[in-house]
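does this look right to u?? iron/sulfur cluster version
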Amino acid sequence: MGLFIAVEISEDRCVGIDDCGECVKVCPVRIFEGEHGIPSIVQGNEDECILCDQCLEGCAKDAISISKKY
Ligand code: SF4
Ligand code: SF4
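got this back:
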C-alpha cells in the first residue's frame, strides 16, 4: 500500500496472468507484475499511479480497485 494510493486486486475475481494479464501489460508505471497466477502489486510503485484508468478499463473481471488516501 502506498502513502497516497492503494491498488488492490480481488483474488476471487481475477482470472490470472495466464488467461489475462491485461493489467501487467497496460500499466505505464509497472504497478502489476508477475508471470503466472494473480499479479503482484509492486508496493513501492503504487504512489506512481497516474490514475489513467487503463487497468480498470482493461480488466474484464472488474477485479482491480484503486483508492486515493488523500
Ligand atoms: S490507473 Fe494507470 S497508472 Fe494507475 S495502476 Fe492503473 S494502469 Fe497503472
Ligand atoms: S486485468 Fe484483471 S483479470 Fe486480468 S490479470 Fe489483471 S486483475 Fe486479473
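The helical segments are 22-26, 54-58. idk if thats expected tbh
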